[in-house]
Amino acid sequence: MRIDVLGAVRALRDDGSPVDLGGPRHREVLARLVAAEGRMVATDTLVDDLWTDPPARAVGALRTFVAALRRALEPDRPPRDPPRVLVTEGPGYALRLPREDVDAHRFQDTLARARRDPDAVTELGAALADWRGPAYADVPGSAWAQRERTRLEELRLAGVELRARILLDSGQGADLVAELGAHVAEHPWREPAWGLLARALDRAGRRADALATLRRARAMLVEQLGLDPGADLRRLETDILTGAVSREGAPDGWTGPGVRLGPRTTVDLARTLALAGGDALVHSRRDRLAAIRAAERTGDLALTARVIGAYDVPAIWTRADDPEQSRAVVAAAERTLTALGPDGPADLIARLLATVAVESRSAELSAPELQRARQAARQAEASARDLADPALLAFALDGVFLQSFTRPGLAAVRDRIGVEILDLATRHELPNFAVLGRLVRLQSASSLGDLDAATAHAEAAERLAAGTEAPLVLVLTAWFRARVTAARSTEPGGPSAATAAAHYRAAEDALRTAGMPGLHRGLFPLALLGLRLLHDRPAPTDPHLDWGPYRPWAQPLVLLARDRCEQARAALAALPEPPGDHLQEALWCLTARAAVRLGERRIAAHAATVLHDARAEHAGAASGMLTLGPVARYLAEAQACAGGG
Prior knowledge:
The longest helix has 27 residues, at about 145-170. This protein is mainly α. It has helices at about 25-35, 45-50, 60-75, 105-115, 120-130, 145-170, 175-185, 190-205, 205-225, 230-240, 265-275, 280-300, 300-310, 325-340, 345-360, 365-385, 390-400, 410-425, 430-445, 450-470, 470-490, 495-510, 515-520, 525-535, 550-560, 565-575, 585-600, 600-610, 630-640; strands at about 1-5, 10, 40, 85-90, 90-95, 620, 630. Among the domains are: about 1-130, Orthogonal Bundle (Arc Repressor Mutant, subunit A); about 170-255, Tetratricopeptide repeat domain (Serine Threonine Protein Phosphatase 5, Tetratricopeptide repeat), CATH 1.25.40; about 470-645.
């Protein structure tokens, strides 16, 4: 027996004769179990999926449908023998058929084989030919069916493009012109498809038509989306003009869960530029927002979601470089989530949620925005786990990491996140996320004072960066090495404080042009202040220092260094609570030190309470870039002050 859902739902006996499945509800029950791919579907879930407003006897009706389906699927089964195809399992039902006997499962497995082995291209062609129309075509109103239809259609389009690419790479494909022409006409936003059509035309000896196709692609992208063609299309046009069309390395298309998104658009270029830093990073942020706005103008929700979610550039810092741009991206993601609704494609929704979590940097958010960002991070992580998509899970975990600074003392929690990101990235060849995992672990080891482990992670991150063209990593590790020098400047025979200050200054020079103002502003003065506190010296009073967002917490100590005690007391009284970010422990320690110096017992007591869970950590070291020394030192002072000692 076999079951087909790539078109109307049907079952066929071994001789090819159809099985009478009964009415629409019977077929929908069978189809829903097919979509579960052998997993049990609980009775309550089946009821909710079958009825928007379940009737009072919905469970009884479901059991009736199941009994009828069992009779249809196993007509010769003796009455007392347990079912072998549609089985009862726990609180629900499951379909037990070999994957090759279900067309949707067979297609997915064949596509996966063809991605690994181009020799499976013939099987892929046969699997594509099995499609008789939209998946689950006679289950039109169900939300679960719409999700599955969308997912399988994306895989079908990927299969069409993969088959064409394999054939073209092998020197064939001249007969693909008509097929790819129809494919492009139906799906004009899929940039790789235009490249494949141009290659097929060139293979058929129609160079002029191939060039005209690429010009049409450019005009469509520019006029309707405001996007320039990706590097692959531009390179292909040059190759066709020179008669040197490459027979390998065709543009990538949408390759489904676990593999990066397509189509290649300006967003893909922006992702690459973001890793380069400097002006390229600034331009990448601008281009990304332009691409999102252009996608929204098309009214195509799936395209918009893909464009927003495609920018899965790992993020390590809790302050945005361009807060307004981040807010605009979050707003676009939220609009798209609302329009897609809860029944939209699960992978697109997960990417949008991960984008909300990553772009909602905690230092600039209101309390409701923080709550939403943390909720989005949890939802994205759960969905990515359900989808078993490692690349998506790594992206979602980046959001979880950025939303994990809820209070001081969570370095060990963040280290566990870093361990999982690194493991995912290593097992699934995600080099940029491998760098992220190393940097997260560097930060947590730095926070816990394990400088040997942090140094090992820094060195590993640098080796990875050499292969991923990510020069910003070297900027971050230069700061870490300055932080190490500062910590060791207090040891007997260690480097001098002046040497540590020089290291910080060299790291600052590199950061100034890195295109990361959210990280850069105020960091150098804060590092110098930390170095002075390590050596029990007053705060720096140079009026030219730009304290950036950290000025309120440094100001009381700067005023004390100028012997302006009453002004320092007023500045301390006006202090807000530090934001939940990489430097929250440092800012609480500055608050504690000022309170101790000024004898403000109430403020010292509050700072001590907040810092208690961070007593094993080092202040500021969660950044991996500076240190104020052990939190325990500031905690003890604050407790003594609060107790009147």
